[in-house]
Amino acid sequence: MRKNSTKLIILAVIALICMLLFAFYNIQGGFSYAFPKRLERLFAMVITGTAIAYATVAFQTVTRNRLLTPSVMGIDSMYEIVQTIIYFALGSSSIFVVSRYLNFGVSIIAMVLFALILYRFLFRADKHPIFLLLLAGMIIGTLLGSLVTFMQVIIDPVEYESLQARLFASFMNVKTELLFISAGIVALAFLYGTRILHKLDVMSLGRDNAINLGISYDKMVLRILILSSVLIAVSTALVGPITFLGLIVSNLAYQYFATYKHSVLIIGASLISIIALVGGQFLVLHVFNLTTTISVIINFIGGLYFIYLLLKESRKAG
Amino acid sequence: MIEIKGLSKSFGKKTVVEDVTLKIQAKAITSFIGPNGAGKSTLLSMVSRLLDADTGEVLLDQSDVKKMKSDAFAKRVAILKQANHLNIRLTVRELVSFGRYPYSKGRLNKEDQKFVDQALEYMNLTDMQDKFLDELSGGQKQRAFISMVIAQDTDYILLDEPLNNLDMKHSVQIMKILRKLVDELGKTVVIVLHDINFASVYSDRIVALKDGRLVKDGPTHEIINSDALREVYDMHIPVQVQDGCRICVYFNSHN
């Protein structure tokens, strides 16, 4: 068995190769125009990838459940509903659409608020079985999804076209001004996030053991849930929802590294996440010639992987 | 010293612990006994701040436990609950190293390693320190968890039914180690026990609970007699003395 440090180096090298390929392969239409564009996209993918990886691993540690992610619980649907309501009620020429900052701010606040209400409702002191949580999350997600569809059906078709573009994750038209705000928020979150890695290790022993070892458990759980909601909200508002990415990368990291150490798990998951996004985007550009989008590919593979994990879990339980 | 003052706890309409006041004697083993649902584990959870009390307070050396910093408390009092299912894969040594977290915050120095070595040695786990917990038997796993609590190096060690699911040999082993912790290292051990004979043979003091209320609190020999036990368990429990141990022979009792 390889040592975890070696594994991390291997992943880092693959991630680097993906990034170099993405930045330099078959560059057309003038280097000075295309290259900065590509770097921007690359930067967006690195931010999104690491944010989703951290958020998912931390979230799964405090919920002690490797199938739940903030996205699966419906944060993504909340993004869709906010955008749809804005288009539905105010139209595409409203200030909430035109001003990227305002749209970004409103989306993030709505998603974090939604997440907190959901957690309050679901993670009260009395323990719910895992599958009830999962089911509740799915049902709320579906309910929001249906509301979204309902509004989209009766919306003006031209408005719908413009809305649709917002609801698919896309790295092709990342707005530079949002990129820097997002990077700032994610950097701030990581400043705190990297300081609590050892606490996350202890918390993976469960509530009783963590309290015994001097962790203010309930306070930490709340903080980490807020932290991961903010991270997911920022990355969703920046590029759009990539529901299953977090689930894939966290579970691949658990499988590949087989350790409890969050420093290793989170760096590993971030690298896998960058490989998936950058490598995936490379394929979309140069193999599929933009006939599909990255979120479709990731949600397709992620959905299959999710079903596989569910089947594996239920077999273990049964 | 730990003082419990007027602790109560209800879940919904059901009162599980009602106005319990007692002092835990230092450098001794105190056993909590009582019928199912008497509130023993709940009381222990409140003392160790795993559970918030509805009313009342717990004092550690005269200061309110709730107002203590949680990592300062973790250096004084350790608690081990009965269900210890982990969903991460750890070796014995990794688990025991977690016991040093209140001191090391995750970065173990030489002294921490020494405590880990000693704790492993104490529980006879040195040979299997690199084995994964899921490869161990129930008794070995329980020893690994107790070893973590020993590495934590606290004055007070609280254990919730540590003999659950253990066979006779391992139960005796663990009780002997607890006795050693008190006699050799001057620790204070509080333990919830179901088996009244282990309580009788190994503890210095016994606290008996029934329906959430404190019914008996005293030195072991005052509690282990038929009259006192009838009050706790509502049944006739003959007590015989065997090799200096008071043994309850309740297996064929006719009320």
Describe what this molecule looks like in 3D.
The complex is a heterodimer of chains A (318) and B (255). Chain A has helices spanning 4-24, 31-63, 75-90, 95-98, 100-122, 130-154, 157-167, 176-193, 197-203, 207-212, 217-239, 245-257, 262-286, 294-317. The two termini of chain A are 30 Å apart. Chain A is mainly α and 318 residues long. Chain B is an alpha/beta fold. In chain B, helix 3 (92-98) packs parallel to helix 6 and helix 5 packs antiparallel against helix 6. The chains are: A mainly alpha (318), B alpha/beta (255). Chain B: It is a peripheral membrane protein.
Rg of chain B, Å, rounded: 18 Å
Helix content of chain B: 25-40%
Overall pLDDT of chain B: 87
Task: Provide the domain count of chain A.
Answer: 1
Based on the structure given, which CATH architecture of chain A is correct?
Answer: Orthogonal Bundle
N- to C-terminal separation of chain A?
30 Å
Total beta strands of chain A: 0
**How many H/I helices of chain B?**
10
Query: Mind telling me the CATH superfamily name of chain A?
Result: ABC transporter involved in vitamin B12 uptake, BtuC
Write out the CATH superfamily name of the largest domain in chain B.
P-loop containing nucleotide triphosphate hydrolases
Could you give a short account of the major beta sheet of chain A?
none
The 3D shape of chain B can be described as: globular
Briefly note the structural class of the backbone of chain A.
Answer: mainly alpha
Report the span from N to C terminus of chain B.
39 Å
CATH C-level name of the largest domain in chain B: Alpha Beta
User: CATH class of chain A, please?
Assistant: Mainly Alpha
CATH topology of the largest domain in chain B: Rossmann fold
Q: How much strand of chain B?
A: 25-35%
Q: Largest beta sheet of chain B: what is the strand line-up?
A: 6-7-8-3-9-10
